[in-house]
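Reading group handout, session on sequence-to-structure problems. Before we discuss, look at one worked example. The prompt was deliberately terse, the way you'd type it at a terminal:

> structure Putative FBD domain-containing protein

The input record follows.
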Amino acid sequence: MNASKSPHYYLKVVEIAGYRGQTSDYEYVKYFIENAVELEKLIINPVKWTPYIADRNRIPNSISEVKMEDEARAHARQHRREKVPSNIEFVCI
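And the output record:
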C-alpha cells in the first residue's frame, strides 16, 4: 500500500501508539517524516491502544504483553532513531 504524497502543514507532534516494529509501523513513521512538513516531535509508543486503555500508567495485561512492548521499544530505539532527521525530536516511551 502506498500512501499519497500530501503535505501536512499543521502536524507538529505525532504519536504512533501500538508500535510493534513491523513493516506497517515503519511505513507510518516514514510517511509522517516525509509528509509532516512542520513535524517537531515523533513519539513511538509500543503500548497497545484501545478506546478503553488511554492511560499511559495502566497495568499491562500479561507478562507476554510487557515483553512485546519492551522488544518494540528496543527495536524503535535501535532501528528508527537513526532514520529520523536531527531536526525532529524522537521519543520512545
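Points for discussion. First: The first helix runs from residue 23 to 35. Second: The mean pLDDT is 79.
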